[in-house]
Write a structure and sequence with these properties.
CATH class: Alpha Beta
Largest sheet: 7 strands, parallel
CATH topology: Rossmann fold
Order of helices and strands: EHEHEHEHEHEHEHHH
Mean pLDDT: 91
CATH superfamily: P-loop containing nucleotide triphosphate hydrolases
Strand order of the largest sheet: 3-2-4-1-5-6-7
Low-confidence stretches: none
Number of helices: 9
Bound molecules: adenosine-5'-diphosphate, magnesium ion
CATH architecture: 3-Layer(aba) Sandwich
Distance between the termini: 13 Å
């Protein structure tokens, strides 16, 4: 049976695509899934994290692989990986209409991180529309949510109107989401008892339930 392709997309840079991809990869691995990562962002942030991981830890030989690919070739690369792994997680660049479209097409779900401000929500519309055109269900994940989030009902209603689901799990603004990546780790490895780890575990389960 073919593996599940999950594409993390959002045109706005800095929304948390790479952060989410890396931590989700570790969470899926911890849930017993084999995971292939695909980095189609020329900035190679995910590739750098993965390289660091391989350099620093023996246990990086944990069945996780990473493939760097760009342009039209990414489609066949993703399909090939989906034949060998339970989950293929694709991290995408900002502002790359064609690349993102190819990555969203054929994915089982598009995971869209978004910070809870009106500007960020507005910036999310293009990728939600893209997912809708490609018939790929989109799941918005609210990221860097402050303790007292100021999300208006109007904002949430706008997102739903675009046909996207909103993940029940929200991710807080937590230093360990950033610092773990600098050590080539996921939060579950760097700080197993942290709130960040709980959030990521909950989110990974929620996504697995949706694609299952
Ligand atoms: N939930 C979070 N808590 C704290 N910092 C975060 C969180 N999500 C992302 N960041 C930080 O925000 C910045 C942008 O995140 P990144 O994943 O690189 O975004 P993108 O890949 O969408 O451009 C990074 O410095 C990252 O460490
Ligand atoms: Mg990125």
């Amino acid at each position: 049976m073919a593996g599940t392709i999950i594409t993390v997309a959002q045109q706005k840079g800095g929304a948390g695509k790479t952060t989410l991809t890396a931590h989700l990869a570790v969470a899926f691995k911890d849930a017993g899934k084999s995971v292939a990562l695909v980095d189609i962002d020329p900035q190679q942030s995910l590739s750098n994290w993965f390289r660091l991981r391989q350099e620093l830890y023996d246990d990086a030989e944990d069945g996780m692989v990473l493939s760097r690919t760009e342009g039209w070739r990414s489609r066949s690369e993703v399909d090939k990986l989906a034949r060998g792994f339970d989950i293929v997680l694709v991290d995408t660049p900002p502002h790359a209409e064609t690349e993102t479209r190819v990555a969203v097409r054929g994915a089982r779900i598009a995971v869209v991180p978004c910070q809870p401000s009106p500007m960020d929500v507005w910036a999310t519309y293009p990728v939600l529309e893209l997912a809708q055109k490609e018939n790929t269900p989109a799941l918005l994940v609210l990221n860097r949510v402050p303790a007292r989030a100021n999300l208006t009902e109007q904002m949430l209603a706008d997102i739903k109107r675009l046909g996207a689901g909103i993940a029940r799990t929200r991710l807080g603004n937590r230093i360990v989401f950033a610092s773990a990546l600098a050590e080539g780790r996921g939060v579950a490895e760097a700080k197993p008892l942290s709130l960040a780890t709980q959030e990521m575990k909950r989110l990974s389960k929620e996504i697995l339930r949706k694609v299952g």
